[in-house]
Amino acid sequence: MSNATLQAARLRHNKELNGIEIHFASKPERQILEDLKFNHFRWSKYSKCWYKKISAHALRIAQQYGELPNTLDVDRITMDEENEQEGAYIEAVLERNY
User: Which residues pair with 42 in a beta bridge?
Assistant: First the structure.
């Protein structure tokens, strides 16, 4: 991955859709496209960007290509996700015991 490609990416927090968008100045290298697809980012023909619902995982991937917008509360997103996972685990355990 070249530094030029990394510098060309601009990350945008789409508050309305609760998503993260990755905007490249030009078409990224094939390896980057494969990585985005592998990590379930989708291409928006309308917005001309790669996007995904915000999650700790989505932010980690997006961060590889640009600087996260300061409108994101990364600590809250990470904490919310951990709480959801813990809640799901507890529910699964309770279901097995009944």
Answer: 51
**5 sits in which H/E element:** helix 3-8
Collapsed DSSP state (helix, strand, coil) of residue 13: strand
Is the pLDDT at 97 greater than 60? The verdict is no
Backbone angles phi, psi at 82, to 5 degrees: -65, -40
Q: What is the DSSP letter of 25?
A: S
Per-range mean pLDDT, top range of 7-16, 23-32, 74-83:
23-32
DSSP 41-88: -EEETTTTEEEEE--HHHHHHHHTTSPPPTT--HHHHHHHHHHHHHHH
Indicate whether this model's pTM tops 0.85.
no
The C-alpha R_g of the chain, in whole angstroms, comes to 16
